[in-house]
Design goal:
The chain is of the alpha/beta class. The chain folds into 2 domains: 148 residues, Alpha-Beta Complex (Aspartate Aminotransferase, domain 1); 255 residues, Type I PLP-dependent aspartate aminotransferase-like (Major domain) (Aspartate Aminotransferase, domain 2, 3-Layer(aba) Sandwich). The protein contains 15 helices and 17 strands. A 7-stranded mixed beta sheet has the order 4-10-9-8-7-5-6, with helices on both faces. Bound molecules: ligand 7TS. Ligand 7TS binds next to helix 4.
Length: 415
Amino acid sequence: MNKAIPKSQLPYDVAKVRADFPILAREVHGKKLVYLDSAASAQKPKQVIDAITRAYSHEYANVHRGAYYLSETATAAYEAAREKVRKFINAASLKEVVFTKGATEAINLVAATWGRTFIKAGDEVVITAVEHHSNIVPWQLLRDATGCVLRIAPVALDGSIDISEFAKVIGPKTKLVAVAHVSNVLGTVLPVQEIAELAHAVGAKLLLDGCQGIVHEHVDVQDLDCDFYVFSGHKLYGPTGIGILWARLELLEAMPPYQGGGDMIDSVTFAKTTWAPPPAKFEAGTPPIVQAIGLGAAIDYLNTLDRAAVAAHESALLRYAMTSLAQVPGIRLIGTAPGKAAVQSFVMEGAHPHDLATVLDRSGVCVRAGHHCAQPLMEILGVTATTRASFALYNTMDEVDALIAALRKAQEVLL
Ligand code: 7TS
């Protein structure tokens, strides 16, 4: 079973948390900002913003190459961020934590290196119907390059993944299973440990796309028993331009480099180049230094909070939002799987999600509308788009009320 964050009995001081996020104090269109699009990108606490300013103001130089104080300081801060990530996901070694520019790059890295080395024509890669395009398209590129077969595990209409249906697409030819930890459209928490058992039983590797999972779930990569775990910093209250590829060391050691350049080599002659060991092998060129430091600060920030209380707060917000939305005439919830995370898609009869989001914006309410980079899932659900409200540790019940009030107002305008 998935290991959810345990329940906390402690009260959660959301007002205190909100005070850490300067942007939440601003208005849009003369209305209080109600930010319900954290699944696309989360807002940043001042602790992260300050860490970025501090890094550029006091500690900035290129890393891994200067024999002078400032470069050593920047290198230490960059590598300290790696250790923060390692600890946060309980990776066994620092060598297993590769900085990328985001989850998308991390998945492409795995497809282009591990995939092109170990996947052959006729081998099967299993994904699910709920995947983000980032966890579909790299495997299609791999299919085009190798002749492997892409198999799709189905999703039930409530958004849940039935493990017995999943088992039907796994077989002796399966070499890789690549699935979301949590769906960005439906909020479904996938049964990743059962999926790990199915994958490993046939000798396949498991990649978890943790973009949404790391935000809402406790992530221990050893406990999850996956082989690759990827996520983006910007959804975890950190900066854009930084992401993580975690992989078991023996996999990283067996994988060829992704890009060639500075920092990823052991030695270079015109005749032959040898690679640095992981993670440097996968970090060619000047890395996103300050972005990594910012991600470290985001992790430090999360570590100051009671994550069990955060999880309880987010589930309370979701329950309240689901109940309130269901009471608005003409609204249909999309994604109601048990145990889901605080992401809620819906459609309003007679209103296009884009029009709806534009009208909600006039009330200061930011929601996402569209296919959410999951067009195949939209097709299965029989919709072209949905409106999605996603909740974070800084959202309040009052903001759910503001969403509902704005929706009722939108109905008057649009219908
Ligand atoms: N995988 C999942 C599950 C995601 O939710 C996203 C981004 C990605 C991969 C890609 O992450 P990136 O940081 O590399 O772009 N999801 C969304 C979303 O739901 N709305 O905007 C981006």
